[in-house]
Amino acid sequence: MGISVNGFEIDDAAIEQEIVHHQKAGNPLKETVHELVLRTVLLQEADRLGITGQDDDERIEALFAQEVKVPQADEAACETYYRNHPEQFTHGEMVEARHILFQVTPTVSLDFLRTTAESILETLKIHPERFAELAKTYSNCPSGAVGGSLGQLMRGQTVPEFERVLFRLGEGELAGRLLETRFGLHIVQVMKRIDGRLLPFDAVKAQIGETLTRQTWHRALHQYLQILVGRADIQGVTLEGAQTPLVQ
Fold this sequence. Notes:
By secondary structure, this protein is α+β, with helices and mostly antiparallel strands. The protein is 46% helix and 17% strand. It contains eight helices and nine strands. The strands form three sheets. A four-stranded antiparallel beta sheet has the order 5-4-7-6, sandwiched between helices. It is flat, with a radius of gyration of 25 Å.
């Protein structure tokens, strides 16, 4: 394929051997090539710095340990994160909800779907008692057969864009606007709420510190990879930013 890094060729045999590990990627070949290029850049840098190890993975880890260093998150940063993300540390929070789904399909225009959904939402604002009836008639979700009921839901059980709205609604509240998700347009109502218990800061401080430090480390790693890739002579492929699939 004519791919090289600082004169070192990445041949088809190397690509064929690596691609089996990327079959679930959206573009297996692209992921494979990027992985091989990054590993080559890193191993060449390890050679330059005289970093050794029992195998390539150990050499890369040793390189990261030497060159990518970040401070531990302090208590003030942890407290700020705790205050700004209480939902992450609240256990037992639950809502009972129902919805009407207007699914986007190739045969129905989005404009028509939105107009229909908005019309039904306006009807429900005036006649909320018709929710179950209209869910059975219009919803493209199997829950329509039971009046749109989704039962009791905890955080993490729905897609993030649905959850963000769902857990902001009060008991009995009908969302005043259509909710858009990857599945389509939704009319959403929360029937009941069970408030959870916020864990005390001291119980989660260590967890938050690890999370913040890991996030900082990944940002620093990304910047480090961008520097290495930027100064390398890479032929035959263009890396769209310094992606880090080899790092978990």
